[in-house]
Q: What sequence folds into this?
């Protein structure tokens, strides 16, 4: 990934950090979770943990009276580092889609939960 400071392809995700999940601009108080990619065993825990957070969101969102179709999903982190040592601020947000989770896996997970909770999804294909 390209570093926003030096513009080189040297940006990498940190081995530990926090992932934020916002759907349609809404984020639950518990809409973030810690990740740890230090070893293979801990890396395997990432996708199940993400699935639990998405399930929690859909359960929470299903209780809304005026539910809009889901059209925007942001799963991001500020826990990135540049191999050249550039300072990446905590305000910077980088999508983890196609880094830690493929877009097709994310869409499949969203579709499963949307069907389970009766929520419409209208995410534009890019």
A:
């Amino acid at each position: 990934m390209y570093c926003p400071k030096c513009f080189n392809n040297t940006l990498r995700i940190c081995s530990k950090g926090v992932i934020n999940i916002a759907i349609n601009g809404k984020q639950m108080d518990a809409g973030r979770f810690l990740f740890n990619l230090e070893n293979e065993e801990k890396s395997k825990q990432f996708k199940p943990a993400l699935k639990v957070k998405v399930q929690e969101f859909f359960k929470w969102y299903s209780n809304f009276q005026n539910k809009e179709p889901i059209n925007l999903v942001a799963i991001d982190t500020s826990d990135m580092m540049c191999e050249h040592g550039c300072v990446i601020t905590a305000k910077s947000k980088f999508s983890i889609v196609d880094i830690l989770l493929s877009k097709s896996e994310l869409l499949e997970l969203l579709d499963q939960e949307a069907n389970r909770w009766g929520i419409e999804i209208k995410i534009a294909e890019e």
